[in-house]
Each structure stands twice: as structure tokens, then as C-alpha cells.
Amino acid sequence: MAHTKVLLREDVDDLGARGEIVRVRAGYARNYLLPRKLAVEATTGNVKGIEQERAALLKKEAKERSTAEAQSEQMTSHTFARAAETSGRFHCAPQTASGSYDRVKGQSGS
Known about the structure:
The chain is of the alpha+beta class and about 110 residues long. Helices cover about 50% and strands about 25% of the residues. It has helices at about 25-35, 45-75, 95-110, and strands spanning about 5-10, 20-25, 40, 80-85, 90-95. It has a 3-stranded antiparallel sheet with strand order 2-1-3.
């Protein structure tokens, strides 16, 4: 029974996760994994390619995470004021901290 090593490009149930090198039967690799592009032969060039893809993915995720954190920080710096409409319903309107201060200052007559 001939076996071969393949590098998984996608998660495969009961076999392994993306980026892992696994040993499978040659027929399984040739007839199922390779034609469906679930795996490639585990050559040094393919391994380096997957490592580069992984590094690029990690860099992209870090950039997205920092962007999300900045947006979260921006959202927490805003306050929300509730104002009653004539119909008795409430709606929320975004207000900045300085806008809220101006409104309170104006109501106190100072």
C-alpha cells in the first residue's frame, strides 16, 4: 500500500486542518484530495507558499483587529441622549461630550 504526504489547503474532516502535512494513501490523494484542491503535494515550495499565505493572513487579521478596536474606542467616546417626540415616543440621537455639556450649560442659564 503506497502512501504519500500532502499539505492540506482546507480543513478536511477526520484528516486534519489547513496547513498540516498528513500521510494518506496515494489513491485517496490522487482521486479525492488533489482534484478537489483540498491538498497539494508536500514539497518544500508548497510548504513555503502556505507559510507565506499564513503570514499574510495573520497580518490582515491584525490590521482588521486594530481597526475594530479604534472604531470601538470611537463609539465609546460618544454619549446618547434621549429626546421625547410630540407623540410620546423616544428616539436616540448621538451626542458628543461637548454637545451634552453645552446643552446642560444652556439649561442652567449660565
